Amino acid sequence: MEPPIVYYPRSEYIETDTGNKVSRKSVICGSQNIILGGKTIIQTDCVIRGDLRRTGGGHAVVVAIGRYCLLAKGSIIRPPYKTYKGIFSYYPMKIGDHVTIGEGSIVEAATIGSFVHIGKNCVIGRFAIIKDCCRIEDNTVIPPNTVVPSFSIYEGSPGMFVDELPECVQDLYEAKTKDYYSKFQSKDS
Amino acid sequence: MSQQIDARQRSYVHYYCPCPDVSKSNNNTGEDEEEDIVESIPDFDVNSPRIHFSTFPISKLYFCDDCHQIRCPRCVQEEIVCYYCPNCLFEVPTASVKSERNRCARNCFQCPICQNTLTVVASTEPPPPQPSASSNSSTSTTSGAPYYLSCGVCRWDSQEIGMTFEKATGLALQLQKTEDERPDVKEFDHLKDHFEKHLRLSAPSTTLPSSLLSIPGISSFSNRYGGGGFTHPQQKSDDVAKYNNTIKIENDDNLVHDLVQLKDVNQITTLTQRMNQLSDQPYKVERLQPQRIHLRTKRVKRCRSCRHILIKPEQKAQATRFKIKLVALNHIPKLTITSLPKLFLNQSTEIILKFSNPLYEEIIVDLALKKDETTETTEYAKIKLLAPHFNITPYNEVWEYDEQDFNISSKGRPSSTASAPKPDIGIYERRGNYTSVKIEITPLAEVDELKFPLLVTYANKVNDNNDNETSGDAPANDSSTAAETVSSDKPNTDADKPNTDADKPDTDVNKPKTDDTDKGESTPTTKSLFFWTVIGLGPVVNPATVKPPAPTRSPLTNNNSNVAPTRTNINSGKA
What we know:
InterPro entries (chain B): DCTN4
Shape of chain A: globular
Number of domains of chain A: 1
Subcellular location (chain B): Cytoplasm, Cytoskeleton, Microtubule organizing center, Centrosome; Cytoplasm, Cytoskeleton, Stress fiber; Cytoplasm, Myofibril
Protein name (chain B): Dynactin subunit 4
Shape of chain B: elongated
Family (chain B): Belongs to the dynactin subunit 4 family.
Number of helices of chain B: 22
GO cellular component, one term (chain B): stress fiber
Number of helices of chain A: 1
Strand order of the largest sheet of chain B: 2-1-24-23-17-20
Oligomer: heterodimer
CATH architecture of chain A: 3 Solenoid
């Protein structure tokens, strides 16, 4: 089934030069520490905590998000933290291209590769590593420090490997995210 | 609204792979090879109970270039090219996989309680800081080592079962000794030693490819069935000396006694926990051990009939690229349902099916519901194809960049512009590399899931440059042993049949001549293929007895406040 065109009120979203669409109703903290790759959509009520950065001075990238990503309504991106050698610190998070993060999901991963689909209401634990071409089903909890290898489907709480993805998943997810971006259109209300 | 979303999620287009019915169709084609093409198309029953095992979404299918046929996961052969640990992503050489029992030999362990990956944690008590107490510390480390495994999900840790480690690395190696001393491992090694003596005597005539040798017991299998006569190894196996087991199974009276006394169900292992520790399958939770993580594989996939490689991943464990990737998505038209209104009983509804062309050539598509029929009435629905014959313009990468441009079809190749002005009946939209067509459906029965079969036949013009490809197909046609090659030929229209026939002698005898004749003809040959699809449209609603969405919600809400309104609604519906 092909997804329908999604309209949003023109006044709600800011569109950047590179085609990122960011909702004014989202909470973006420390925007100077956040990089968006272009054509990425950040929807209503998203939270990106760019202010949670490594202790110590200097400019640092906290959250790097690639191209054609979608942060659906109410998703939360928070960099992971740990106490290493007695020092509490946040660590940067990297998200690849063509990544979909479903509604209400909380992501505290260390890295998320490209062509990844994360369903609705998921929790991605601290320092989880999700490699390229993965699918996390709805309502999954990925425990901290988990590695999700390429071409796997994880499901459940705690998230377990349930199936393999087909080889053409890269093309599928690329087409899907591009299609969603082209169908996410503004409308005067 | 919620119902509509449900219907949308339940709609699908699945492609049929005839492989499970290969033997059946093979017999047919052998007899009536000269019969009409339409006749040779195998029947397809959407209500057959086997349908779920022979239809797949397009993403799961492959396409064999040589057979020119769809291949499903059940008609490909797999070969392991690489073993790796899914947690540390280290590649394990094939040679050592067997000795490491198909599990990661590094630091990766699975929680015995919740099967999650464990992390190595240093003891909360830091190692004794005073240098003066070094003599004391050395004794203390021997008693309680500083590292242990901990589960981030269920908070289990290996200290509970008294498992600690001296170092944070090479944990599996540190456990090797205890693992080797396990009775089941000992017994297996003993058993292996016992039989290996005999296996060594019988000559190792390994005719199998080396990639298969890592599978335990396969060499003995090949000795028995592959190499040499049957009687010789049979004799040998009779000579095997009597085996005496070394380990005696301990008396389980104590265990039974303990189990009888149990009062808490949590003290007994669950089935998954027990099955995860196959070696001894303990009943008591305290006897569960962390298990090393199972390795995963990367596999080459081959076509079962022509042995050509369809999928070849890169050797490296972390790479996601493929050296060869022949997936159906890039070779056959993709069908998507773009518009699916709610289906009401006895109400004709138009659905829109989008056909997209992944090829660089224009294709002509013919649709049928049942051998050349465009309308069909079953007990469930009356279906009418409004556009049974149409073309789709080729795929063009440039379109990827200006998707916003809505007048793209007019910019396409001249053929598309020629067809565009024509009043197309039943064509909903033509744009880029896709054409959307309308199908009229009148449901005649209230069913949970309305589905109908659709036969898609498509032909694409192959340029003279690609002549080799068609001639490559010809020998496969000749053999006609494998069912799929036969079936791939059948859909060819009469017009192109002489063409392939003309090709056949050329490939056998002289090549240059073929080129001449082809140039003389200068008509592009056509390649065609047909496949069955099942289109599922979700439930049919009866407008007379239609209920509001409330009763279809979860039963929990039903029990409370919604009971009264649903009753009244039902009453009103009857009235």
